[in-house]
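Lab meeting, item 3. Inverse folding demo.
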C-alpha cells in the first residue's frame, strides 16, 4: 500500500464544529496523525439535533462526517496537568490547528508564541471569522453571518424573493479547504527552510477568494452583481433552469454548437431559423418566447430522460438530483468516491477526498472517535504509565 502524503505528520487539533474539523479531516484522510483535543464529554458538534439516536451516542452525523481517521484526547484545559500534556505534545508536533476567536488560545496559554517557543518548527493554523487583527477580529464567525457579509447572499436567489443563503455551510467548508491548503503549503515550505510559522485564515477572506471573478467583475469592469436566480454567470438564456414533465432541468448550453444541439434534440429545429433567436443578443431580447418554446418541448418527457438525451447530443444539462440519489450516481460508483467504514452500529458510507491520486491518495480508515477514545494511548506515547493516567482521570484532567 502506498504511503500517503502526510504520513508521519502529527497535528494537534483544537478545532470544533465544522470549518476547522473539515480542514484537519482533509489532512487526516491523507495520512496525518490528527489528535483531536476535546473537552471532557466532547465538543458540541457531537450532539447536533438532527437525530436523537446519533446525538445520544455523541456521534451526530455532521461530526462523523468530518472527524474520521482522527484520535480523540479529552482534557480539561484549565487544569495545570493538562497544560503539561499539551506542552509535551507540542514538542514533537508538526502542526497545531484551532478555530477559536482571536486571542482565546493565548489566554489559555497555548497560543503560537507559547508553543513555538517549545518547538520552532511548529506550524500553527488559526481559522477564525475575520482573522487575528482588524476591527472585527473579536467577532464570532458563523457560516450564515459570513455568507451575508461576503456578498454570497446578495448574488444568490431571485430578486423578487430577496437574498438566499446556500443550502449548505459553504463558507465553513471553503474556509476549511483554505486552511488545509495553507497547512500543506507551510509543510512544503518547511522542507527547505526548516522553519515553522503562523497561518491566519479568515473565513471572510477565504470566502471572497472563491468569489474572485465576481470581485474582479466590479473592480475591473465596474459591474455590480445582482441576484440572477438559476442563470449561469455567462448570462446565456439557455444556461438556466427549465421545467420538464416531472421536475426541473438545469441547462448549461453556452455556445452555438450546443444551442443547435439543444433545439434539434427537443424537436424545434424550426426555431434555428427564427430571426428572434438569430444570436445571443437576440435570444436575450426575446428570452420569454424562447423559454416558452423550450419548456413546451420539454413537457414531452421526464427530466432524467432529457438529461441523457441532451447530454448524448452535446447539449450539457443535469436534472435536479437529491443527495440520497447522487451518492449512488453511476459516475461516483465507478470511481469509488463514497467510502465505507466499520462502526459499532454497522457499516457507514461517507465522503472522502474530492480528488484521486495515482498512489497514496485520501483514504478513510476508521470512524470518527468517541470522546476520549484514544486518551490512554496518546498519554502512553508521552510516557505516562497506567498509574499516572489513572491519577489524571481521578483529578478530572482527562
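The presenter then showed the designed sequence:
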Amino acid at each position: 500500500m502506498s504511503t500517503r502524503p502526510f504520513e508521519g505528520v502529527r497535528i494537534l487539533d483544537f478545532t470544533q464544529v465544522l470549518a476547522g474539523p473539515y480542514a484537519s479531516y482533509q489532512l487526516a484522510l491523507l495520512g496525518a496523525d490528527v489528535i483531536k483535543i476535546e473537552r471532557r464529554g466532547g465538543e458540541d458538534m457531537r450532539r447536533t439535533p438532527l437525530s436523537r439516536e446519533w446525538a445520544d451516542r455523541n456521534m451526530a452525523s455532521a461530526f462523523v462526517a468530518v472527524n474520521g481517521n482522527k484520535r480523540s484526547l479529552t482534557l480539561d484545559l484549565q487544569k495545570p496537568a493538562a497544560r503539561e500534556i499539551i506542552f509535551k505534545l507540542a514538542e514533537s508536533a508538526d502542526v497545531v490547528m484551532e478555530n477559536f476567536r482571536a486571542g482565546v488560545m493565548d489566554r489559555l496559554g497555548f497560543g503560537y508564541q507559547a508553543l513555538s517557543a517549545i518547538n520552532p518548527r511548529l506550524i500553527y493554523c488559526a481559522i477564525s471569522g475575520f482573522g487575528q487583527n482588524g476591527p472585527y477580529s473579536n467577532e464570532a464567525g458563523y457560516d450564515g453571518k459570513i455568507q451575508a457579509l461576503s456578498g454570497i447572499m446578495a448574488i444568490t436567489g431571485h430578486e423578487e424573493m430577496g437574498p438566499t443563503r446556500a443550502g449548505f455551510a459553504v463558507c465553513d467548508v471553503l474556509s476549511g479547504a483554505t486552511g488545509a491548503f495553507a497547512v500543506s503549503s507551510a509543510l512544503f515550505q518547511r522542507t527547505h527552510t526548516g522553519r515553522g510559522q503562523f497561518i491566519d485564515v479568515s473565513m471572510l477572506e477565504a470566502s471572497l477568494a472563491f468569489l474572485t471573478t465576481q470581485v474582479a467583475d466590479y473592480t475591473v469592469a465596474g459591474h455590480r452583481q445582482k441576484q440572477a436566480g438559476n442563470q449561469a454567470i455567462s448570462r446565456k438564456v439557455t444556461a438556466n433552469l427549465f421545467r420538464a414533465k416531472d421536475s426541473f432541468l438545469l441547462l448549461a448550453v453556452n455556445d452555438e454548437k450546443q444551442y443547435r444541439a439543444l433545439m434539434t434534440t427537443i424537436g424545434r429545429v424550426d426555431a434555428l431559423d427564427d430571426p428572434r433567436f438569430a444570436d445571443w443578443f437576440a435570444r436575450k431580447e426575446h428570452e420569454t418566447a424562447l423559454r416558452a418554446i423550450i419548456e413546451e418541448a420539454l413537457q414531452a418527457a421526464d427530466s432524467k430522460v432529457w438529461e441523457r438525451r441532451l447530454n448524448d447530443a452535446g447539449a450539457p444539462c443535469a436534472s435536479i438530483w437529491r443527495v440520497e440519489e447522487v451518492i449512488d450516481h453511476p459516475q461516483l460508483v465507478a470511481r469509488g468516491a463514497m467510502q465505507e467504514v466499520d462502526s459499532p452500529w454497522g457499516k457507514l458510507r461517507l465522503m472522502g477526498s474530492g480528488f484521486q491520486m495515482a498512489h497514496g491518495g485520501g483514504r478513510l480508515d476508521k470512524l470518527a472517535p468517541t470522546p476520549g477514545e484514544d486518551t490512554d494511548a496518546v498519554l502512553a506515547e508521552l510516557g505516562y504509565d497506567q498509574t499516572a493516567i489513572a491519577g489524571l482521570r481521578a483529578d478530572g484532567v482527562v
